[in-house]
Structure formats: structure tokens, C-alpha cells
Amino acid sequence: MINTRREVLKKSALIAGLLMQSLGYMRSASGYQQNAFDAKTVLELYKSLGLAMPVESKQIVLTTPEIAENGAVVQVAANTSLPNIQRWIFLVEKNPVPLIAIFNMTEQVAPAVTLRCKFAQTSDFIAVAQLSDGKVYFSKKEVKVTLGGCGG
Amino acid sequence: MSDPMRIRLQSQGELTTVKILMSHEMESGQRKDDSGKIVPIWNIQDVIATLNGKVVMTAEWGGGVSKNPFFQFVLKGTKAGDKLSVTWRDNRGDSRTDEAVIS
Predict the structure, then answer these.
(1) Same domain for A81 and A140?
(2) B77: pLDDT strictly greater than 80
(3) In chain A, which residues have their Cβ closer than 8 Å to the Cβ of B59?
(4) What was the ipTM of the complex prediction?
(5) A89, part of any domain
(6) Is residue A151 part of a domain?
(7) Chain A residues whose beta carbon lies within 8 Å of the beta carbon of residue B27
(8) CB-closest option in A77, A106, A149 to B57
(9) Closest approach of B100 to chain A, Cα-based (Å)
(10) What was the pLDDT predicted at A139?
């Protein structure tokens, strides 16, 4: 009796494991990384994207306003002389959801990207560059916000 | 059906700067309405750009992208007559595709 119970437990654990795996696969197949957009802190976010801790780089140039009167529309831009960039990740550190956008780059586009995003409050804007060799770099710049962008 | 995107292309040699203005509410999922209830998130999640049918860039966006998103990037190795197509899809399943030809 104990044996069979053990067997059943073992099997159900195995099945649960398989289910989890296939769920993970389905998520990655659909493309949109919801878990990354659920992350509430920058550290959580790096973890959910499976990134190594980024190293600060002067080769990433950010263009941001010093002061934004309206946090709902803040234009930010990133460019880099680092070669073979595969992915840009745009973050606003102190937003309730720090992840703003992920850009998957190819050889057909230059590394310069511009986007308008929301700032809930004065915060660092962080651009993370993932290179094709897996190395991860970042640069950050503070934007002072006089009126928040998320309402409340 | 949502309003069309405005796509502006500026070519200089083999580089083409692409400026896109999309029409979307981009509700962040953080805002509360007058009765104090959170307004559910409604945002563009996926953006795909193709040049002559080949994917050149994809993006995933959260609710932190501004309302009526403005997005700019630069295409390399372009020539007159190349066709750029941009598609977005939001979390309600709505989508929109617009095209522009490099002159």
C-alpha cells in the first residue's frame, strides 16, 4: 500500500514537472514575456529575462530630457557603438512596472532606438544592451518628473 | 478597427530613419477611475517590422509606453522601392498593419 502510494506520488510529481515545462514552452512560443512585465523591481526583471547582471558602459549613449513636466510622455533614446547588439531593454527604475519595452534587433537595423514612455515619478531611465555573445551592458540617466504619468 | 499608423521615412544614402506614430490608448493598468477601481491594462504588446517581407525588428511593450506611441528606429542597407510593413497587436487581440515605401 505504501509502495503504491509512493509510486503515485512520484508519477504525479513527474507529470506536474512535465506540465510546468510545456507551459513554459508555450509562453516562450507565444513571444510575449508576461513574467518580465510582471516584475516589480529591476533585479526581479533581470532574473525573469535570464540576464546576467549588466555592466555599466560608456559606449551606450542615452538621450533623455533632464526635466520632464509631464511624466506621461517622456521621449528617450538609446544608441551604442557596441557591436552585434541583439536586444535593447528599456526600463524606468521607479515605475510600478519597471520594464517598458524590449527590442529584438537584427543586422538590418542600426542600434539607435527612440520611444516615448511614462514616468510615474522622478527616476533613472536604464537602457540595457544584450550582445550576441551574451554579454550585457547598461547605461542610466535620471529624468526629473514634475507631474507623474500613471495617475492615481 | 483602430486608426492608421503614421509612418514617416527619411533616407540618407543606405540608411532610412523610420518614425512611427501609432494610435492607441495604452492604458497602464495602474490608473484608478473616479470610483477608485483600477482601470484594466490595455496596451500594445507586440510590434513587428518587416522590410520586403523579412522581419527586421520585433518589440514587446508593456503599459509603460506612452499613449499614442511614438517609436523610431533606423533601417540599414535600404534602397528606393523597399517596402516597410509595421504590425502591432494589443492584449485584447486587436491588431493593425500599415505599410510605407522607401522613396
Answers:
(1) yes
(2) yes
(3) 101-104
(4) 0.95
(5) yes
(6) no
(7) none
(8) A106
(9) 16
(10) 98
Residue of B61, B68, B91, B92 best to disrupt the A interface, most CBs of A under 10 A: B61
Residue A55 dihedral angles phi and psi, to the nearest 5°: -105, 135
Which residues between 18 and 77 in chain B have a beta carbon less than 8 angstroms from any beta carbon of chain A?
A: 28-32, 45-46, 51, 54-67, 69-77
Q: What is d(CA A73, CA A92) in angstroms, rounded to the nearest whole number?
A: 13
d(CA A119, CA A98): 10
| pLDDT value of position A147 | 73
Q: What is the CATH number of the domain that holds A71?
A: 2.60.40.2470
- The answer on A39 and A19 residing in a single domain is no
Q: How many C-beta neighbours within 10 Å does residue B40 have?
A: 10
Structural fold of domain B6-101: Immunoglobulin-like (2.60.40)
Domain containing A97: what range? 34-145
pLDDT tens across A72-87, in order? 999 999 999 999 999 9
**Does residue A14 sit within a domain?**
yes
Same domain, A38 and A26: no
pLDDT (tens digit per residue) in A29-48: 457 999 999 999 999 999 99
Enumerate the residues of chain B whose CB falls inside 8 A of the CB of residue A74: 66
Sign of the alpha-carbon dihedral angle for A111, B48, A68, A36 = negative
Provide the residue ranges of all domains of chain B, joining segments of one domain with +.
Answer: 6-101
